[in-house]
């Protein structure tokens, strides 16, 4: 397993981390993802630790908190062997303070997460979404207090826009609050919007990407092929509307390129898709998920080998899209190479 710095922090995380959205199995979305309970979760964690995975990601909204509970039980007795990343900020109830990142909400969410996880500290807390109703100074000062109390080690965000993230970083610098070192983002061969602004920002400001849904919301599992109906067991039947849309023609072009490279390398389509992400700038770790041991072992096979530069180029070309203004080629790095070295 390769280990990388989490952004500009001193923390080393495994190139592959394990996402526990399949733990718990509660609710319409997460029950479609998986229903892993404690015994099976412990087995999956065993496999991850044996493979060198040290980062485990969850969130308070995953199965209404059950994901955190199951992960905590699976790590019982070996907490020091693992890094725990969790997220808060999305709605967990119908009350006026059951959503967002106000001071009381952050404190209550952290205390609840600590109880469910069965631990006294969280290695990385990420704000699950930008809360425009909470002052940035209030958010960061609260996180600063929790870091000082030893309840949080590092802080990060998820699903922020460029200006949301940069405003927060500038505010942290101005007041001496902890900087966000990680940004959990959607990034895959089917969804490359991260590259337009957030990747250059992350490279400039030392914010590492933790990639969620590296297989394009289940579209790059190797089960979806040109001219073949969607498999009966695909989670896309139940969850496609929750995820980012993908142009069908472009999807099949990407899959065709993946299948060709998979044949050349003797790897699977998902392994190739994840391996491509691991070549990209700012990526600290790619979060893999699995409903069972077989899926987990397959995804872990994305490390320990490398794509050739020619194969990387083919995959990049097949998945390329024209970015909107002001990011399309003439206005970004390709057009001003003397001013903006290419990523």
Summarize the structure in words.
The chain is of the alpha/beta class. It has a single domain (3-248, 270-307), classed as TIM Barrel (Alpha-Beta Barrel), CATH 3.20.20.100. It has 12 helices and 10 strands. It has helices at 28-33, 38-51, 66-74, 103-117, 136-148, 162-175, 198-205, 236-239, 248-265, 269-277, 293-300, 309-319; strands spanning 3-5, 12-14, 16-19, 55-57, 83-88, 122-127, 152-158, 180-186, 208-212, 283-288. The strands form 2 sheets. Strands 3-4-5-6-7-8-9-10 form an 8-stranded parallel beta barrel, surrounded by 5 helices. The chain has a two-stranded antiparallel sheet with strand order 1-2. β6 (122-127), α5 and β7 form a beta-alpha-beta unit. α2 (38-51) packs across α3 and α9 runs antiparallel to α12 (309-319). The two termini are 24 Å apart. The relative contact order is 0.13.
Summary?
This protein has 12 helices and 10 strands.
Number of helices: 12
Helix fraction by DSSP (H/I, runs of at least 4): 25-40%
CATH architecture: Alpha-Beta Barrel
Structural class: alpha/beta
Q: Predict the CATH topology.
A: TIM Barrel
Mean pLDDT: 92
Largest sheet, strands/sense/barrel: 8 strands, parallel, barrel
DSSP strand content = 5-15%
Number of domain units: 1
Q: For the terminal residues, how far apart are their CA atoms?
A: 24 Å
Number of strands: 10
SSE pattern, N- to C-terminal: EEEHHEHEHEHEHEHEHHHEHH
In terms of quaternary structure, what is this? Answer: single chain
Radius of gyration: 20 Å
Widest sheet, order of strands: 3-4-5-6-7-8-9-10
């Amino acid at each position: 397993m390769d280990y990388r710095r989490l952004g500009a922090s001193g923390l080393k995380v495994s190139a592959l981390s394990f996402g526990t959205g399949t733990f718990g199995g509660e609710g319409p979305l997460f029950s479609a993802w998986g229903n892993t309970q404690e015994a099976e979760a412990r087995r999956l964690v065993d496999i991850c630790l044996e493979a060198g995975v040290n980062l485990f990601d969850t969130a308070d909204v995953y199965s209404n908190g059950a994901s955190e509970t199951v992960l905590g039980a699976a790590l019982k007795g070996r907490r020091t062997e693992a890094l725990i990343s969790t997220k808060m900020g999305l709605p967990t109830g119908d009350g006026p303070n059951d959503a967002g990142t106000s001071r009381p909400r952050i404190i209550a969410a952290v205390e609840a997460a600590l109880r469910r996880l069965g631990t006294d500290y969280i290695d990385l807390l990420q704000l699950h979404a930008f809360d425009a109703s909470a002052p940035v100074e209030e958010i960061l000062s609260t996180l600063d207090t929790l870091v000082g109390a030893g309840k949080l080690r590092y802080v990060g965000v998820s699903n922020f826009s460029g200006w949301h993230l940069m405003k927060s970083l500038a505010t942290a610098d101005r007041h001496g609050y902890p900087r966000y070192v990680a940004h959990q983002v959607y990034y895959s061969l089917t969804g490359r919007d991260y590259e337009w602004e957030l990747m250059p920002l992350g490279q400039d400001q030392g914010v590492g990407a933790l990639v969620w849904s590296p297989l394009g919301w289940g579209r790059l599992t190797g089960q979806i092929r040109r001219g073949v109906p969607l498999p009966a067991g695909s989670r896309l039947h139940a969850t496609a509307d929750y995820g980012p849309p993908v142009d069908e023609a472009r999807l099949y072009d990407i899959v065709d390129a993946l299948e060709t490279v998979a044949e050349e390398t003797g790897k699977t389509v998902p392994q190739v898709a994840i391996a491509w992400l691991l070549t990209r700038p700012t990526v600290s770790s790619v979060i893999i998920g699995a409903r069972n041991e077989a899926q987990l072992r397959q995804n872990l096979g994305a490390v320990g080998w490398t794509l050739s530069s020619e194969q990387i180029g083919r995959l990049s070309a097949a998945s390329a899209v024209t970015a909107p203004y002001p990011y399309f080629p003439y206005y970004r790095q390709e057009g001003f190479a003397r001013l903006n070295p290419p990523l």
